[in-house]
Design a protein that fits this description.
Length: about 325
């Protein structure tokens, strides 16, 4: 009986395998087509769900989505400027967002505080040249520091003589100038490292060499500001994380409901509009806010009777508008 059934069973298994192989061949053809498109993209990324979405460097997860930039007023926690990008990191966003915030607030002087993810020499210099004071913690990537040896911060720079003084009191003199990634750099080292008594705490090589960017004085000034304002990062957290937490709570686990960067930007703008409206209602009160709006835009005066006909009616209308956002 088993011998008679075996050929039929084998035939069924063969057919199933042939179907699976056919499906795999189709998938391979589709993947080859995707590979061609992928190699043609500048950043070597492609999203099959949303063509504008990109991999984000968020705590190393690489989640595919969008990078929302916000500038928040430290006094009232109002979002004064925002932008949706598909750039995976924040390192190139500092100067542009600081300029947007200053323009939106209509001020000449502005202090921008950001976390270490925004640290980039060129961005800090661009902010400085634009007259914006920035405070961003430096990213420490030194292997010497990680292994318990002296870091660059332990060496004191003497601007008058253009040299560094090491923890042992030796002078690291200027040696030459070079250019890397369009940045002009200066190299320093001492000739007495080989006989230094604490050399093992400084370097494993023959000499401890230091590199200084031509505009590093801007970074030194920023570090001095951070040293004199140890609460700067606490202020940043309680300022900018507050709106993000509130808006994410409103958005729910699904977060953005639209696709492509234009639609996502519109969706985020509506969320921020609703957030700012509710914040201003809390700060100023509804009546004072409406008076300010009507004073700012006289063309809305003709709606005064309709909008302010009855306070309770307006409250109901306001709730409907906010929930619809």
């Amino acid at each position: 009986m088993a011998d008679r059934q075996e050929p039929a069973t084998a035939k069924l298994r063969r057919e199933r395998l042939e179907d699976k192989i056919a499906v795999l061949k189709e998938q391979m053809i589709a993947l080859k087509e995707i590979e061609v498109v992928l190699n043609e993209t500048p950043d070597k990324q492609i999203s099959l769900t949303d063509p504008d979405a990109r991999s984000m460097k968020t705590r190393g997860t690489g989640i595919v989505g969008y990078n929302v930039q916000t500038a928040v007023d430290a006094k009232h926690h109002l979002i004064v400027a925002h932008e949706v990008t598909n750039v995976g990191s924040d390192r190139e966003q500092l100067a542009s967002m600081a300029k947007l915030a200053r323009e939106a607030m209509g001020v000449k002087e502005l202090t921008a505080i950001a976390d270490r993810g925004y640290f980039r020499n060129e961005e800090i210099l661009a902010s400085h040249e634009a007259g914006i004071t920035v405070m961003v913690p430096k990213v420490v990537i030194s292997t010497a520091t990680a292994n318990g040896r002296f870091s660059k911060a332990d060496f004191i720079y003497d601007a008058k003589h253009n040299e560094y003084r090491c923890p042992a009191g030796e002078h690291l003199k200027w040696r030459y100038e070079t250019t890397e990634r369009d940045m002009k750099l200066h190299r320093y080292w001492s000739s007495n490292c080989k006989t230094c008594a604490i050399k093992d705490k400084c370097t494993l090589g023959e000499q401890r060499r230091l590199t200084r960017w031509e505009h590093e004085a801007v970074l030194d000034e920023m570090q001095t500001r951070l040293d004199h304002h140890p609460d700067a990062m606490r202020i940043r957290r309680q300022t900018v994380e507050h709106p993000y937490g509130t808006i994410k709570l409103w958005m729910g686990s699904a977060h953005f409901l639209t696709k492509t960067i234009d639609r996502v930007s519109t969706e985020m703008s509506l969320h921020i509009l609703a957030y700012n409206m509710k914040r201003m209602m809390k700060i100023f009160g509804i009546i004072a806010l409406m008076k300010a709006i009507l004073a700012r835009w006289p063309l809305l005066q003709f709606n005064r009777a309709v909008i302010c006909l009855h306070r309770e009616a307006f409250l109901y209308t306001q709730r409907k508008i906010v929930y619809a956002l």
